[in-house]
Amino acid sequence: MVLDEPKESDDVFHINGFTMMIDKDLHEKTKDVTVDYVSYGMGSGFRVSSEVPVGGGGGGCSSTSCSC
């Protein structure tokens, strides 16, 4: 997740006062994407999951979600 300006290659959504963008090609692959802020144990962060899981990523990422 990064702060960015919308591009022609992005799908743009306005949700609860936030503007969320996802690359159109990635959106076709993942379908619906959910972004949650979660607190657990001694940490907290964003969890990003998709209707159709995609592999890759590093750190706290797995094939179904990512805590960034």
Describe what this molecule looks like in 3D.
The protein is mostly beta strands and 68 residues long. The protein has one domain. Helix content is 10%, strand content 46%. The chain is built from one helix and five strands, in the order ββαβββ. The chain has one helix at 24-30, and strands spanning 10-15, 18-23, 33-40, 43-50, 65-67. The strands form two sheets. It has a three-stranded antiparallel sheet, with no helix packed on it. It is globular and about 40 Å long. The N and C termini lie close together (7 Å).
Task: Outline the secondary-structure elements.
Elements: E1 10-15, E2 18-23, H1 24-30, E3 33-40, E4 43-50, E5 65-67
Antiparallel strand pairs: 1-2, 3-4, 4-5
Task: Provide a brief overview of the structure.
This protein has 68 residues and is mainly β.
Sheet/helix structural class = mainly beta
Count, helices: 1
Query: Terminal Cα separation, in Å?
Result: 7 Å
The percent of residues in helical segments reads 10-25%
Q: pLDDT below 50 for ≥5 consecutive residues: which ranges?
A: 59-68
Give descriptors for this structure:
disordered C terminus; 5 strands; 68 residues; mainly beta; 10% helix
